Amino acid sequence: MKPALPLRLGVAGLGRAFTLLLPALERDPRIRLVAATDPQSSAVAQFERDFGGRPHADVTSLCADPEVDAIYIATPHSLHAEHACAALAAGKHVVVEKPMALRLDECDAMVAAAEAAQRHLIIGPSHSFDAPIARTRALIASGVFGRVRMLQAMYATDYLYRPRRPEELSTPEGGGVIFSQAVHQIDIVRLLGGGLVSSVDASTGAWDPQRPTEGAYSALLRFRDGAFASASYTGYAHYDGDELMENIGEMGMPKSATDYGIARRRLRDATMAEDALKAARNYGGKTWSPAAAGEPAGHPHFGFVLASCDRADLRPTPAGIWIYEDAQRRFEPIPLDPVPRGELVSELAGAVIDGVPPRHDGAWGRATLEATLAILEASTAQGPVTLRRQVAVRD
What we know:
The chain is α/β, with parallel strands linked by helices. The protein is 33% helix and 21% strand. The chain contains eleven helices and 15 strands. The protein has a nine-stranded mixed β-sheet with strand order 14-13-12-11-7-10-9-8-15. Helix 5 runs antiparallel to helix 11. The longest helix has 20 residues, at 362-381. The radius of gyration is 20 Å and the shape is globular.
């Protein structure tokens, strides 16, 4: 029997990730926000005002709420495994923010908890949910263009200079670009390449002693079928990779030339501690305001991606897909969704309500984390790392 609609969703963590997903949660009639917990009382009070939701003192209390069907976990990275396992043990379906966890044994515990509870565990959102990436995968899977042979992915942002809590600048606690940004790129190239990565070689960069964690990496991923992918990223706030994406930002909104350098300027001009500055800008904070209304300029993205197949190169963009064939190039537009990240909500609703197995399940998230952790390991070892926990794409 299908569960009653709408699906009653609780939220653990009302920070930046929740703010980005909130428009999609509000819009979808299959979802109702009913309860939340967060260390910031101002965020919980804002949630009560906006949704009439029940406040909870902690995640344990939220998991025990009988009026909650599923929980969206957006707590700090180091707490994902603990909180996901608690929610699953309480009989809740779970969406957990990327990265799935910090260690593979934590992923194992999460997958086992989902199996024991017979509940869905979905990992996301990552940018592999984005409509142009999903459509590119569908074109590859169709076989029309032959096998995918090579993938290239590159992005440059100001990630490392946005306001951060101390643990977000500490690699052992899940800080830096590997845990927060590489998972997007690895998820994309794994999806387009079929999922089964055999080895990873990589180098990483940590070049600012004031922000002592990885801010850049370059990785080479080899797939079991012989395909390979290069993935590179820098978050050092110099070149802006959105220049290659029609000056459309990561969340699909247009960017102005005056945006250049804004992250470093905000840190330089801040009159409060960095973690306080971040808290003030988060949901319910002193300087927070709801997202401005307006149509996006394109789909969300994670920078330049090119998939080279036997008979064509495929390049997803914020507006659609460029297809470069032997004798012609053509563009396949993809209609815009007025609210970004609706794909994640649809995957949750499809799994729980319609019984459609989710693509981004626990086994998929664990495989992405394995490849992501291999970037750190390969950089330290100065040699390739063999992967053993990979799974194929569910098309």
